Amino acid sequence: MKHTKNSTTWRILAILMVFGTFVSCTKNFEKINTPWTGSPTASPQQLYTGFLNNLFTTYGDQATMNGWWYPISQQGIVYTRGDYSYNGGPESEWSNFYHNLSNYNKMMDIISARPDSATFTNLKAMMKVLRAYQAIKLSNFYGDMPYFKAGLAYSGNSIDYKVAYDKQQAIYVACLNDLAWAINHFSASDGSQVSLGSADLLLQNNIPQWIKFANSFRLRVALTMYDKDQADATPHIADALNKPLLTDYSTDNVGFYPSNIPNLDLGGREFSFGQEARLRMGTTMWKLMSSNNNLDGSGIFDLRCKIFFEPNNAGQWNPFPQNPTSSSITDGGDPYNKGIRDKDWANKNGNGTPPTVNNYANFNYYWGRDKNIPELFMTAAEVHFLKAEVYIRGIAGVGMNPSTAQTEYNAGIAASLNFWTQQAMNSLVWVVNKPTSLPSSTDITTYQQNSAVRFDSSNPSNALTQIYAQEWIDLFRQPWEAWTLMRRTGGKTPMETSNSSYYTQTYGSYQRVQYPSSEQAYNLDNWKAATGGGDLMSTKLWITK
Known about the structure:
mainly alpha, two-stranded antiparallel sheet, two-stranded antiparallel ribbon, single chain
C-alpha cells in the first residue's frame, strides 16, 4: 500500500518532531535531563514512531564507516586518513539512544496507567526488542554505560539526572531476558492487540516476523557473549534454536526499507563512501574473492565481488594494500562523485587540476548513490552462519555436528549471494553492470565448492574460520558489526598477514569508542567511576576475547 506525506505515518512523524522536547532524555545527563512540566499528550503509538526515528543511521555514522570502521574491520581500506572524527558517529548514537530510553520508559508508564493495558502487549514486546537492539549496538561501541536507571529524568526526581554506569555484562544479560520475554509474549492471534499497521515502519506489524527478528537477535547477542559468560548465554542459545529464526533470504532480512517508507531520504548514505573519496577495496577482501591478482578480474570467483566493488579508472581490479609498506602508496580521483559518475560512469578522476588518476579498485559507486537500499539490522544469511558456529563448536548442549554446520554454512552462502544480488537488481539508480538475474543453483554450488570456500568438515578449527569469514563478508554494509565479530572471536575474522605491524600501529589501539565529552561535563563523577579518569580507546570491552 502506498502512502503520501499526508498519510497517518507521516502525520505521526510530524507530531514527534514537535514532541521531541518532551520525550528527550539526554545528550547529556543534566542539561537535557530536566523535569517535564507540560501536559503529557503523546500516545504509545506516537512514542513508538519517535523511537524508530532515532534508530536511523546518521550522517556521522556514515562518515565514520568510511574513514574508520571499514579499515578497522578490514572490509575496506582508506589510502589516507580521513578528516571525520572517529567518535563522531557513535556520539550521535549515544544521544539517540538516551532520547529513546526516555521514550521507552514514558511509554511503559502510559501503558501501565491505561485500563486497556493488556491490549498493548505486542507493542511492549516490540519496544523491548528495539531497546535491546539499540542498547547492544551502543554498548559494543562504548562498553559500560548508564542503562538501568537512565531515561527517567522526566519523573522530576533529581536523583535521576546523573546516572551511574552499568557493566556491559549486566546490560547483555538484561537484554537477553527482555528478548526472551518479548518472544514469549508476542501474539499473532489475539485480535484485541493494538495494531500499528503501516505505522510500524520496520516490520509493518507482522508479528511472526517480529518473533523471528527477536529470536535471531537473541542468538547473535548470546553468541557474542558466550565465551565470557557461558552460564547466561547457553540457555538462550539452546532456546533460540528451537524457536522461529530468520532463514529466508527473500523475506527474512530486517532493516529500514525505503520502499516501505515513502519519501524517506537517506541522504547520509553518500557520506559512507563519497564525501572524502578515499575508501578503496583492500587486499584482505580481494584475497577472499579472487584466486589471483590478474588486473582483468579473471580470477574473481565470488559473485559478490563485482556487486560490492568496481575496477579503477582504467578498468583494472587493483586492490589497495591493506597494510601498505610505504606512505608513498596513495591514490586520487573522485570515484564517488555523483555529479560526474551519473553522467559519465567511467570517469573516476574527478575535477582535479591536473586531474588525478584513480589507480585502485573502489567500492561500487551505487552503494553510496542509491537511497533505496535498506539499512540493515540482520540478514537471514547471518543467522545461518550463527547457527553454523553453534554446531561446529558444539555449544549450548547441541553437541558438535559438522554435517549440520556445513548445511547451515552453505545455506548462509546461498542466502548471502542471493540477497546482495537482489539488492543490486532492485536498485533504482544502478545502470552500469547491474545484475539482471539471481545466481543459478549451479553458480551457487560452484562457489560453495571452490577450494577456498569448500567447508572443511574434517577440521573444526578451519571450518570455524571459514564461517567467520563468510559472516564477515555478508556484513559488508554493517562494518560496526564486523568489528564486533572481530573482537569477540579474538581476531579470527579475515586479516591481512603481510606487514601486520602497520595495522597494529594504525588501527590496533581502537578497541572501543571514547564516551561523549558531554559525559565529563554533566555526569563527571559517574564517568570517573567508570573510566578511572582515563577513558582509553585501547581498553578492551568485556565481550572482547
